[in-house]
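User: Please look over both lines:
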Amino acid sequence: MTARYAVYYAPPPQHPLTALASAWLGRDAWTDAEVAQVPVAGLDTGHAERAELTADAAHYGFHATLKAPFELAAGQSEAGLIAALNDLAAKQPAFAAELAVHSLSGFVALTLDPPCPAMTALHTACVHAFEAFRAPLSDADLARRRRAPMSAEQDARLLAFGYPWIFEEFRFHMTLTGRIRDDARRSAVIAALAGYFAPAAGAHHFDSLCLFRQSQRDAPFRIIASAALQAAG
């Protein structure tokens, strides 16, 4: 099957947030290695429940989506995509924003609190900069995306950019769990993870972009390249 790529934000491999997230999810997207899942104070999950809670997030790797997963268009290459990543990063400034644990559509995630215009601008630049590399979605992928309720505008963006929730509907999030439908359970998970991530949450310096690769659809995403944001702020 054809590989997919995505442009994500992920903290550097040596960052405390990476260590905490890897130990929570059970996987490190930088190395593709399994990581022992450590207990979290205030969270009473067994091994099976914890694995189910984190399975999807671990599969995609700890990240925030800037350009959603895509297959390469005809005539494009991985080397060209990496060159484009470096070129875009050189033109973008680093910035700081506040991270906090919240719920987003029933999922628990690290989000920006308050929202950050600099991050929205970086997302918008990524959506446009890598569009030439994106193959059109297959009929199967379109059908999969359309299972979620969408407006006519969102469907148009799905066709035009491969993902519907972009631009003014972009919400930065670093997913930590699957959807938790029980409100009380979700609140308990939020409280526990807020404490767990407290040592590395708060003010965060965003200074890079990462390219993730998925070799085939059932394979996990892993980081294959990163580029520093270098423009003057």
Remarks:
- Strands lie at 4-9, 27-28, 33-34, 64-71, 95-104, 107-112, 173-175, 202-206, 208-214, 222-228.
